[in-house]
Write a structure and sequence with these properties.
The complex is a heterodimer of chains A (111) and B (111). Chain A is mostly beta strands and 111 residues long. In chain A, 0% of the residues lie in helices and 57% in strands. Classes of the chains: A mainly beta (111), B mainly beta (111).
Chain lengths: 111, 111
């Protein structure tokens, strides 16, 4: 089955700096890669995603890149703000419509 | 107001009891999922259903059961056979090959 690894597990940045979270996956047939933001006690919220036929996608301050050859994808947050502090999860979806999640990155933005 | 609802938000179970967690969606999604989240770990798949009257076991199905009698509903029963059920339970849904969205979660505690 699919195995998704996520790094780092914790990340602290100064407000205004950039944050990068990286994930790798094992199943080359996986074709869809979402990123979720989860605040304490709440369900994960989809913030951006990328499909396997695209290399990069941006939405305001967040962007995701995908390297299919290396089987890794990354989340980039620019101009970080305190409200970006949360746990972020990456995931990979296989052709059977099952999703496999990384173990999460706890991001703290220091004002 | 479209989305996924889960109830109750908090649930307490005594040893030896079965409890049922509710999940309802009005997004007209075919696929529904149940995940378990423990501190410091990612989301682990319990059961998923791609279509009404059909469901498959995920990675940690032992001690759990589900039904899918209606497209919009996917209840999860935590049985007494689940020895360590204290966790945060998340329900999700997705249209086939589309994004996956999560409900707000149910926190289950064993007394």
């Amino acid at each position: 089955g699919e195995n998704v690894e996520q790094h780092p597990s914790t990340l602290s940045v100064q407000e205004g700096d950039s944050a990068v979270i990286k994930c790798t996956y094992s199943d080359s047939a996986s074709n869809y890669f979402p990123w979720y933001k989860q605040e304490l006690g709440k369900g994960p919220q989809l913030i951006i995603d990328i499909r396997s036929n695209v290399g990069e996608k941006k939405d305001q301050r967040i962007a995701v890149t995908l390297n299919k050859t290396a089987k890794h994808f990354s989340l980039h947050i620019t101009e970080t703000q305190p409200e970006d502090s949360a746990v972020y999860f990456c995931a990979a979806r296989n052709t059977g419509n099952q999703f496999y999640f990384g173990t999460g990155t706890s991001l703290t933005v220091i004002p | 107001d479209g989305g996924i609802t889960q109830s109750p938000k908090y649930l307490f179970r005594k040893e030896g009891q079965n409890v049922t967690l509710s999940c309802e969606q009005n997004l007209n999604h075919d696929a529904m999922y149940w995940y378990r989240q423990d501190p410091g770990q990612g989301l682990r798949l319990i059961y998923y259903s791609q279509i009404v009257n059909d469901f498959q076991k995920g990675d940690i199905a032992e001690g759990y059961s589900v039904s899918r009698e209606k497209k919009e509903s996917f209840p999860l029963t935590v049985t007494s056979a689940q020895k360590n059920p204290t966790a945060f339970y998340l329900c999700a849904s997705s249209g086939f090959y589309n994004e996956q969205f999560f409900g707000p979660g149910t926190r289950l505690t064993v007394l």
